[in-house]
Amino acid sequence: MPTIMRIGPYRLFFYASDRDEPPHVHVERDDKVAKFWLDPVRLQKSGGFSRSEISRIHKMIEENSVELKESWYDYFGD
User: Fold this and answer.
1) Model-level pTM greater than 0.85?
2) Are the C-beta atoms of residues 32 and 48 closer than 8 Å to each other?
3) In the chain, at which residue ranges do the beta strands (DSSP E only) sit?
4) What is the pLDDT, as a whole number, of residue 32?
């Protein structure tokens, strides 16, 4: 599972087996893992994060969405 980036306490990654799904990213902190679609950025699964933390993560993903999508397509192809 390639790590795309780390921002503060968060690790952003995807699984190598995610190829058949639309572009998305998993966000991990401690024992919590959320999943966000990238186009458009929206929450798919909150994974135990609080609502306020999900809002912060959502903003973080929006701010880095171009790089995240580029990483997705670099890894999986178009």
Assistant:
1) yes
2) yes
3) 3-7, 10-13, 24-29, 32-38, 41-45
4) 98
